[in-house]
């Protein structure tokens, strides 16, 4: 495994940590900055919105720059954003710091996916992308609990100081280990060429699968603490450790999903999403059982994140020779899915359907994503069959022409 992949994973770890750790520190941040819970919540939703917007706009702005320089510039942006958060005297400054840090998120993972895929042989591209995303999963399993603990013991600002240091370390690692050009990296393409990827119907279908397929799982996860305490009967103090189980599932799913996607992207997505629907549906009706809840948490995390490398690979494959913007757009789609899934889950709870309702709602949303995937793959098969038939027809015509050409002189010879 190229060491450059570890450098990219380090950047992913820092970015994942700054995205998720704020949830565990929100009460302390709200109290210190003198805002209510709803206002403090914009530090999370505002970040997600900025990721979605930044993934497209920032990537478009840097499309002509060398990718290594772009990654380093994005890490500078990340460090600056978290430094602003660490010293923020007011809520408005804190929110601005979150926005600055978020702007690098989508572009980093989008461009990083292209760089990671270019560092390895074609048959290992999905596994390379999974290695980069392993930093994100590690942030969930280790970074968030430790970051929350640090913030609770030494003040929430200490966590953002630590994230700032992690950003500097990742930046040094990228500068030292990521090659100036990947082995198969193409020259920088004009933005118009990169945008041409969006003429592909399969790119749009891939983005739809990401929004729905991943959004269903995230919508269920958003309210999982309420499910665990209000339905499964666990204490609130047990929730962080239960989330470690979910995070362990993320790590396993990311690794296995990356390897499986290198064999078949379509099969990996169909199997993982189908099983995810079943797990969330069973979880929704059996959430009162603690043993079932423990198993379902691990499986939901594993199956949900097993789709990530394959989702990223699918959109890049169908983008052809212009994968950068499409890759970044897929990162935006993940965040749109996060917001959409969380909204759907909130609607079911507000409607009085209970704390298990986000689970079956998530199963329905992921089912919709699975249906879009099946339609997309059916179109791919039809196009492939049509291309083969067209190729066969051309070969037959060529052969017929050659036969006629060979027989004509013979005929003339006989006539003579």
From TrEMBL:
Domain Major facilitator superfamily (MFS) profile: 4-381
Coiled-coil stretches noted in the UniProt entry, renumbered to this chain: none
One Pfam match: MFS_1
Gene3D superfamilies for the chain: MFS general substrate transporter like domains
SUPFAM superfamilies for this protein: MFS general substrate transporter
Record InterPro entries: MFS, MFS_dom, MFS_Efflux_Transporters, MFS_trans_sf
Topology of this chain in the membrane: Multi-pass membrane protein
Main localization (coarse): membrane
Subcellular localization(s) per the UniProt record: Cell membrane
Domain of life: Bacteria
Keyword line: Cell membrane, Membrane, Transmembrane, Transmembrane helix
Residues spanning the membrane: 42-63, 70-89, 95-120, 127-148, 160-182, 203-226, 238-256, 268-286, 292-311, 332-353, 359-378
UniProt protein name: DHA1 family inner membrane transport protein
UniProt lineage: Bacteria, Bacillati, Actinomycetota, Actinomycetes, Propionibacteriales
